[in-house]
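Reopening this ticket.

The earlier resolution said the output was attached, but the attachment link was broken on my side. Pasting everything inline this time so it's all in one place.
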Amino acid sequence: MGAGAAGGAACGDLVTVRVAVADGVVVDAGFDASGCGAAQAAASAAVELVRGATILDAARVGSAAIADELGGLSVGKLHAADLASDALHQALGGAVARAEVTEVVAGRTLVAMSGGVDSTVAALLLAQGGEEVVAVTLELWRDAENDAEASCCSASAVRSARAIAHRMGLPHFTLDLRDGFRDGVVSPWLAEHAAGLTPNPCVRCNGHVRLDAMVDFADRVGATALATGHYARRSADGLLRAAADDAKDQTYMLAALGRRTLARLRFPLGDLNKPEVRAIAREHDLPVASKPDSQDLCFLAGTGRERFLERHGGLTERPGDVLDATGTVLGTHRGHFHYTVGQRRGLPVQRPEPLYVVRTDARANTITLGPRAALDVDRVALRGIRLHGGRAASEVDGVRLRYHAPVVPCRLEPDGVALAESFSAPAPGQTAVLLAGDVVIGCATIGS
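Inline output:
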């Protein structure tokens, strides 16, 4: 059984839908609705449309189908169909996620659709290649202070992705991972900030939360694979390999993926560049052809990092000393967690020569400033080193120490990497991606 709800105090209408799934069929569906008559009618139409339908046919039911079932709705009442559709798809996704694993259907692929141009074109290319495409969108975060339109994982983004999938004739599921995302991504991000680190939540999310969950969901809908809009490829032995377009390569963000999940992944955009992807979208008149890329962390969209740390992590003003390399106090800062290694802007102390954050100390609540040259290192400490696919430490010949930073030739040692050339400001808590040529053969976390 799965349940979903949409609406509430803001609009005065509330729709709740419940569905039960067995053997790939919606065996029962029901609803509760309060508010205007249109909301109640739309909820009733939604459950009638899916009761007895296969899960894929039910996943094709959206706002337009619900409105048509009612003989059409006025512009002012279309909101009711949207609410019923939102509640229905939450319920359907939850029910399918809890259902038994379904027999695999050859040629069926689940596509992770965020509502952006990359994932939409990935779905299009697979469908054009003759595959049976099923779409899924994750809702990861919901916060009144967020800009839902700017986030790739909000309820608004889910609705947008569903509309695009239905426009393309694809069944679409909503998968609510908010609890897992908070526990597995946001809470560690807050804790690591408090500990004076610079965490990378996207690596954690891809490696341990969302892609694992979608591969599991693929099993529930009988899909052989999960495809995403990431710019990445796979090597002959099944490891991650850099995308053809180095400027868009996203293997850094996927480096923590386990072998089981990676074996099920496909990357239709791996050999394309961004202009080519947008051209394909324009050629097929897709409404996302010119949609801007998401630039911020999904849970920070529309709100600042400092505000988020305060509201969700309780990290408020905590004055501490600003030091130089000799330990001399230069001034006072607002809390060590506001600063990261390599930061230059927004520093509480100004000097004629440029200063940078060289070190932060959470226990002493201090930050140390120094010149640009003080950031350059030729060795980086690592913790939690993982090598994939039985690869040996001797095979590591390069490391990427920051997203889109140049690969630095290196030698892997038991507790770090010795760099063949200096690197500026590796931040403790960030991910180090270990490479053999353009293949990701391991990852680790940068230590202090």
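Reporter confirms the inline version is readable. Residues 108-300 form a domain with the Rossmann fold fold (CATH 3.40.50.620). The chain has a mean pLDDT of 91.
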